[in-house]
Predict the structure.
Amino acid sequence: MNELGFIPVTLIPIIGIGFAYLIGSISFGIIFSKLFGLPDPRTVGSGNIGATNIARSGKKLPAILTLLGDAFKGWLPVWLALRTDMLMWVVASVGLAVFLGHLYPIYHKFKGGKGVATAFGVMLAVSPMLGLATMITWILVFALFRYSSLGAIIGAALAPVYAWFLLPYKDYVLMVLVMAAMLVWRHRSNIQKLFAGTESGFKKKN
């Protein structure tokens, strides 16, 4: 058979990639900010819709929920693609699509976040070891320097290295490399602030 139900098999990858982008376009930072009565994250702090900016409101729960939501939406489409035995290039494309959806969400005039949690979810779905290695890198850097952005930048820079050793397929390694490059690019203003000493960090509690 050349069709799956009423859907031609040749269209399944396109539908999967499109579905991933739409899932990625869901901005949990905006959703939870509204639910908890917080200002729109695009109008305060760094203007980012991610968990770090929401955490600066002083309320931990919406920040945690945003982090989990953004990571889950990165994980879900890739996990589904893997479970439906899609080709490796399709799985990699699904991962990139959900990541790009977060960066450029169609629901919010293509103005999204930086994609750290979503990229983590994608990597976790492809390889739990890759996700764990990247997460540990972020945690160690943040614990030492108290800059979430620095942890994200170094984690992104090292993710392709981890992927090279942990992932057996070049399609997935290329996917991680593209996400890492875009993550660093999205943090270019943070890099400038880190060098200038003006980046916002989280002070250690006495």
Notes: The first helix runs from residue 12 to 24. The mean pLDDT is 91. DSSP finds ten helices and two strands in the chain.
